[in-house]
Amino acid sequence: MQESISLCLRGGEPQAQDFGGIESKFALRTVKEPDEDTCYLVPGQEDTVAKCNFNHTSKTFVVIHGWTVTGMYESWIPKLVYALYKREPESNVIVVDWLRRAQQHYPVSAAYAQQVGEDIATFVDWMEEQFNYQLDNLHLLGYSLGAHAAGIAGSLTKTKINRITGLDPAGPNFEYAEANTRLSPDDAGFVDVLHTYTRGSPDRSIGIQKPVGHIDIYPNGGGFQPGCNLGETIRLLAERGFGDVDQLVKCSHERSIHLFIDSLLYEESPSLAYRCSTKETFEKGLCLSCRKNRCNSLGYNINKVRTKRSTKMYLKTRSQMPYKVFHYQVKIHFFGKLNVTKTNQPFLLSLYGTLDESENIAFILPEISTNKTASFLIYTEVNIGDLLMLKLQWENDSIFSWSNWWINPEFRIQRVRVKAGETQKKLVFCSRDGISHLKKGKEAVVFVRCTDKFMNV
Q1: Would the pLDDT of 25 be above 70?
Q2: Which segments cross the bilayer (predicted)?
Q3: What single string gives the DSSP state of each residue in 152-168?
Q4: CA dihedral 40, 42, 46, 48 (to 10 degrees)
Q5: Which residue in 253, 262, 431, 436 is the catalytic one?
Q6: Residues annotated within a binding site for Ca(2+)
Q7: Which is it for the CA torsion 435, 438, 288, 299, positive or negative?
Q8: N- to C-terminal Cα separation, the chain
Q9: Closest CA to 255 of 269, 271, 267
């Protein structure tokens, strides 16, 4: 990039600014060619802003890629550019090209995130000072290493950037890093983060595990995403060939991007995330509350709630777009004549509603005991509407189970309580027989919406 000099006003005195050290490139992509860098905004060269038809009064999205093995743009970039323009047709979508630095050995590229952040900050300051561009309209979206470059940029700009979205920020070299060298809540007016691949020990996790934003969302617990298992990878390889092999390897890491794209394309049905202290508590269905900002939309339309401490949120998703599911907390009180305790028991639950049904949802209860209440999370991929009826079946551990040869355990159930996360409705279901006898390996027991008749049983 050629060296250029610009006059900037600092403290009332004109001062020459050198942009020659900027190596990152800033391509303003278009809705007609979302996959091509056809026009570059060059800091210090004012005419490039006019040539690229930059819209000075619209929102601007700055997309920052991460580490790359191939030294080429990844296939998600044009998909995200297209989705941003579809949602905000008058906006500017800028893709930051730092491919040369990003294709080094990972530790080298990770160290370059600092300089990339500095480049972006210099570019943003120039746009603000030279063209009076309002940073309230600026939204940085950084993936993996790009998320930390976005954070560094936000910490260096003279005026605070409106929003930074971290898409599974990189873990190695950053999990234990100081806040000023990685993404942190101080880097923008609002920082939201999606964590989708946080497996393994903290120093080896592909995605950063600790919260680094105002709101940190961990889809499916944040460790592994549906559809990214080995069997699914083999199936997709058979269908698509090896052209997408790099994408399949990074399936969970890159899911963060596709979840954000989903939020742009499916505005009418956003995925809801729920505030919870741990993923284990969330799995018990104990966090499906929307009171006092306890739930929020994932992605573009997130409610920008800022708290002193990072807010951790969880949700389940489908394996493919649209990713939205419907969450339910189910509470069952087990009682009986004999004291029985069973661990890791397999069940099937079927839900029937006014719009649809979802049958044979498999789940495991870690422990069930006589005279104790179990709470667990269930989710459906379809919107069943208002819940009318449910069936519960206690499965055998296997086709032939020695544990059931001598004795067939039984629990009695009178009512099932259900809370729907998306509607916040609480419902009580009663056994059609007054009391249901749930036996292992036998037929399902049925519960219907309670009436006064059933409630008095």
Answers
A1: yes
A2: none
A3: HHHHHSSS--SEEEEES
A4: -20
A5: 253
A6: 182, 187
A7: negative
A8: 80
A9: 271
| Spatial separation of the C-alpha atoms in residues 220 and 283, rounded to whole Å | 10
* CA dihedral angle for residue 54, residue 58, residue 63, residue 64, rounded to 10 degrees: 80
Supply the pLDDT for residue 3: 42
pLDDT > 90? residue 191: yes
pLDDT > 90? residue 58: yes
pTM value?
Answer: 0.91
Candidate list 97, 168, 192, 216, residue with the active-site label: 168
Q: What is the pLDDT of residue 20?
A: 84
For the question of residue 97 being annotated catalytic, the response is no
Here the tokens at position 361 are 């949802």
The residue assigned the tokens 């493919």 is: 320
Distance separating alpha carbons of residues 400 and 378, to the nearest angstrom:
27
- Specify the pLDDT at position 407: 63
The one catalytic residue in 65, 119, 139, 144 is: 144
Cβ burial, residue 89 (10 Å; 0-12/13-18/19+): exposed
263 as an active site residue: the answer is no
pLDDT score for 457: 43
Confidence of residue 242 (pLDDT cuts 50, 70, 90): low
- Is there a contact between 59 and 137 (Cβ–Cβ < 8 Å)? yes
Check if 144 is active-site. yes
Q: What is d(CA 174, CA 106) in angstroms, rounded to the nearest whole number?
A: 12
Closest CA to 279 of 199, 203, 384, 346: 199
Please state the φ and ψ torsions of residue 308, each to the nearest 5 degrees.
Answer: -65, -35
CA distance 46 to 129: 12
